[in-house]
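Design request, tokens follow.
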């Protein structure tokens, strides 16, 4: 009998049943995104992108240039799997703060990723900072977020400052090519994102020493349902270029109003926000032909980095459209988290924070080398590029080293 029992347990060990009990505990990541409300679409896209990243990290994929694609978990933590838990901010700073406090009270997550909008990221990251808890921001663009002296806050995306520099370098190139461009209309939402983008544009115009002038400064209420009055102000100012700091639902409204009210400009440029969502071009079609904006991912990138097709196909299977810059930044954030967990001496908040601070992750998901944070927590390895809607597709048109299509200027009549 004793011999049979020993054989039985030996068989169990041979089949690998017992070792499962010693498997590393999963590592939970808390993610703050607007999953309901007016920003549910970009929030849900970010969620889908993060889910794709977790599937890749926890599985095994042949993806050159994508770290942790073959490791089936976090190698230095016993192959621990990444588990994502999402918290709905509803696009509200107040709700976001409450959800952040809930995350910290639950005490299970090892890192917070969030929160899409700068106006939500700002207060939620303050809550985390007070508790000395690491916070990784994928998308929020207000440059002020990394100018607050926080020690536990890190951001992957380019800032409004970087996009503004890119916009005016691009406009300078258009001038050199003989295009008429000097009058600018600035349209922006009354949020952290909009106010800061407007400040950066004003600084750039002042530094141009007369090369550009703002002919219309047009703020509007976030969650606006009618923007005809604002569009009529743009039309009356007769700018060469309109610059937008506008989220998805309002950008749809503005585009429809520009069409119906007959606004004609040489270029319509957008900071990160509504323009970048592929649904914008898909639903509005020819009415938004040749709109332009900052870009950290377009389907064009697959032509230069073929391994991204797998990521795009996995994402498309979830949401029925291609990745965009915001979604790709969210996806990248999960790889950055995995890398920090892998290098951290343990999974305590300070250890994870220290690992994030020393990140030097080369990854093919974004333009540029990858992710490396400066002393303020800002990624210094990411490049800014410009896309344009051409024949209903987003094409990278500037700078030259990333471009796959030529700029259409002026935009369609």
């Amino acid at each position: 009998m004793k011999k049979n029992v020993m054989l039985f347990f030996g068989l169990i060990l041979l089949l690998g049943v017992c070792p499962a009990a010693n498997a590393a505990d999963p590592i939970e990541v808390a993610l703050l995104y607007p999953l309901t409300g007016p920003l549910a679409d970009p929030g849900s896209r970010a969620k889908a992108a993060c889910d794709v990243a977790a599937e890749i990290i926890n599985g095994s994929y042949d993806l050159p240039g994508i770290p942790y694609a073959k490791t089936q978990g976090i190698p230095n933590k016993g192959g621990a799997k990444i588990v994502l838990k999402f918290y709905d901010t509803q696009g509200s700073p107040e709700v976001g703060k409450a959800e952040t406090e809930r995350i910290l009270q639950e005490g299970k997550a090892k890192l917070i990723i969030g929160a899409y909008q700068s106006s939500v990221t700002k207060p939620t990251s303050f809550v985390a900072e007070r508790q000395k808890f690491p916070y990784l921001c994928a998308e929020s663009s207000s440059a002020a977020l990394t100018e607050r002296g926080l020690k536990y806050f890190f951001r992957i995306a380019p800032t409004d400052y970087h996009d503004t520099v890119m916009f005016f370098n691009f406009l300078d190139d258009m001038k050199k090519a003989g295009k008429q461009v000097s009058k600018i209309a600035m349209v922006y939402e009354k949020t952290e994102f909009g106010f800061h983008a407007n400040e950066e544009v004003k600084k750039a115009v002042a530094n141009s020493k007369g090369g550009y002038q703002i002919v219309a400064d047009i703020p509007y209420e976030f969650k606006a349902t009618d923007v005809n009055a604002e569009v009529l102000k743009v039309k009356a100012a007769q700018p060469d270029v309109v610059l937008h700091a506008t989220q998805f639902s309002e950008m749809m409204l503005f585009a429809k109003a520009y069409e119906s009210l007959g606004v004609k400009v040489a270029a319509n440029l957008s900071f990160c926000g509504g323009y970048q969502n592929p649904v914008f071009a898909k639903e509005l079609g020819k009415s938004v032909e040749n709109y332009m904006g900052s870009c950290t991912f377009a389907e064009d990138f697959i032509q230069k980095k073929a391994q991204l097709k797998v990521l795009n196909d996995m994402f498309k299977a979830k949401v029925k459209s291609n990745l965009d810059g915001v979604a790709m930044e969210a996806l990248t954030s999960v790889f950055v988290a995995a890398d920090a967990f892998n290098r951290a001496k343990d999974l305590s908040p300070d250890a994870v924070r220290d690992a994030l601070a020393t990140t030097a992750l080369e990854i093919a998901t974004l333009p540029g080398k990858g992710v490396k944070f400066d002393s303020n927590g800002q990624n210094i390895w990411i490049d800014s590029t410009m896309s344009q809607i051409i024949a209903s597709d987003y094409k990278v048109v500037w700078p030259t080293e990333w471009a796959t299509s030529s700029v259409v200027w002026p935009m369609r009549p």
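Comment from the thread starter after seeing the answer: thanks! The longest helix spans residues 40-58.
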